[in-house]
Every structure is written in structure tokens, then in C-alpha cells.
Here is the input.
Amino acid sequence: MGRNRNPIWYIACMTLLLAGTFSAAIFFYCRFAAASSVPTAATWIWRGLSVMLLSYVAYIVIRAFFYKTPCAVDSSKLPGCTVLVPVYNEGKGVMTSLESLLSCHYPPEKLEIIAINDGSEDDTLEWLQRTADAHPGRIKILSFEQNSGKKAALCAGTREAKYEYIITVDSDSVVAPESLQAIVAGFADPKVGAVAGNLRVLNIRDGIIPCMMDTAFLFVCEIIRTSQSLDSCVMCTPGALSGYRRSLMLQLMDRWQAQHFLGVPAKIGEDRALATMILTSGYKIVFARNALVKTIMPQDYPGMCKVLLRWTRSDIRENFLLLTWLIRQHRFSGRLAAMWYHNIIQTCNTLLPSLFLPSLLLVAFFASWPALKLCLTAALLLGLLMAAIPAMVYARQVSVLRSAWAFVFSAFNLFGLSWIPLYSFLTLRNTDWLTRKK
Here is the structure.
């Protein structure tokens, strides 16, 4: 998956990068605080939030060094597993996803593949049938006459599954040959309720946006989720590739499918919702670095915004629900402390950006134009400093040249996407999928 680089060299470079990041941040914030055009209270708030975020980055980077990939299970000892592929209006593209599953290094006699056609209105069912006919006995097809939503499709597939280990794969995703084995290996601990896969972008050559998203995915998986995995509290099991215990899914199924938030059905973010329910049920969720899956991302700005709106709304909802559960806990453990820490930072990652635009308006109204320019410069520099970490990871794993997209995405996120968290808070009751029906 990644390039083989000297780990000592990598650790030394990452240490220097972290030290340089903090040094540059402290230097700039001292200058920022000294500027007479910026209110004193604003500088203290800014410095406090910056130190908090940078400290978290340092924590997860250091923790990521200690992550170890779960040992592979011998083929003869692999248990049976069922792969669920919910499909809606995927057309011919679903064939690519199914063929990648058929090519996985998993004993065919122990692998059940169920494709659920969720009321597609195009020729998806025809392509499903054609793929199944080309591989007799390997693919089972369930078909809904009407679109019922991804949750309903996954629930139907879970009830139909014959094995304890369930693996979900999106119909626009392609899995690596070793991915199914890697997911199953993550269940060695009986307290593990789910295993999250390693997500990357499939259509990386289709434009700037897929390139930027690929750097973001690599950082989320290689740094954030490896750190959360060491704390056994990965907060999202991506729909593109994740594994679950069927017995646990059956216990949570009715609550998961009937989930409401703010009086409306929670139809989006089914992966985050299920992860929250698993964590709050006392089970662990871990990350499998070698369970690689590549998925298709939007190529244009409107499509990207629709996806990010859906993700942000579900993140806000699940961060709040997990926080309320943590508050009700009358016990203490290292794992709960880690969950508190991760959840607070994840909450800040959605809350603080939503205050960015209103804060700029307040500064512009009550302060001066120089103060506004300085605030924008400070925000941009902080973003670029934090982008140095994913750039470093991407340079090691993929390409030094393409790692520059991490910096481009940081600036683009500030000026082109900063409205999304605020709009998500204001429209939190909107649970439309935006890129599909349900």
C-alpha cells in the first residue's frame, strides 16, 4: 500500500516538523497578540484554541507511531463472512465493485456476497444479474421494488446473512485483495464489535477535488483512526468498507433503523450512527490499516459540497449523542478518558469552523480592516501549519510531489468550504442524502 521508508528517518522528520510547527505558531501568535488592531480577548481565545488543536495533532501523530497492523489469519483458519453491497442507480459501475470482491484472497466456500438493489431506477439490476450469472453461486441478489434507504438495505442483508462476520462495501468502491482478511483479523478480541477499513480515493485522476480529498482521507485514516484504534474507540466505520459482528448488528438494528434526531428520521450518516451505538454498548471499534478500499469522490465543487454537508450534519448529530452518553457515565477508565478527548476535539472541529464567518463579520464591524486581514492571515497560517502533517504522511505513503495537495486543500477549505459547518448547524434537521434518494 505505501512506500517502504526508513522508520527512523520518518520519526525524526515528523518530530522536527512538529517542533517547527509549534515554534512557528508561537512566534506568529506572539506577533498576532502584539498587534494593536486586534482585541486582546480575541488573541487569547485564538491562542488557546490553536494550542488545543495543535496539541491534539501532536497527540495523535505520536500515538500513530505505536499502531500495529493486526496479524493476518491463516486461510485455513478464516471464519465465514458475508459481504453486503447496497446498490442504488450504480449502473455498470457495480460490476467493478463486485468483481473486486470476487478477486479477494478469501476462500470462496467461506465467502457470501449479497448485493441489495435498493429500488434502482436505471439498469443496475440488469448489471447485477449479469455479474451474478458470470459467477454462478457466488453472488446473491436481493431487490427492493422501491427505494427504501441504505439502512433498510443493510438490515435486510444482515437478516439474510448466514455468517457471524458482516462486511459492508459501497457499490462505487473497489477493495484490495487482502482487505477482507484484514477486516476479519481485527475481530481477534471478542470485545471488538466493529472494524473500520482504510479509505482512499479511486478516481484520483479525475480532477483537483479528488486529489485534495485523497490527502484528507490518508490523514484521517493513517493518523486519526490509527490513534483512535489504539484507544479502541474509532468513531466512524466508513460505509465504503467496514466489518461488524452480525449478532451485535441484530441487537442494534431496530434502534439504528428507527433513529430520530430533532424530531426527524436520521437517514444520513448511517455509518457514524452505527459506530456510536456500538461504542455506547460497551464494544470496541478498531482500525485495520491493511484493509484498503478505494471509492469514487465527486469531481466538481457542488458535488463535493453535497457530500461534505451530509457528513458534517451526521458528525454534529453523533458527536452530540456520544457526548451526552459520556456525561451520563458515572465511572472512569482510560478508554472513557480517551473517548472524551477524541469527542471533544471532533466536536470542536465542527463547532469552531461554524463560528469562523460570524467572527470575521464581528471583527470587521467592531475593529478595523487591518484587524480583519490579520485574522485571516492567522487562520490561513494555522491551516497551513496543520496541513504540514498530512502532507508529510502523504509524501511518505504516496508521492512527495502530490503531497502539495494537502496545502492546497487547507487554503481551499478556509475560503471555499468554511460556510459548510455553519450551514450544517442551521439546517441540522435536513436529513436528505443529496446525492441519492434515501
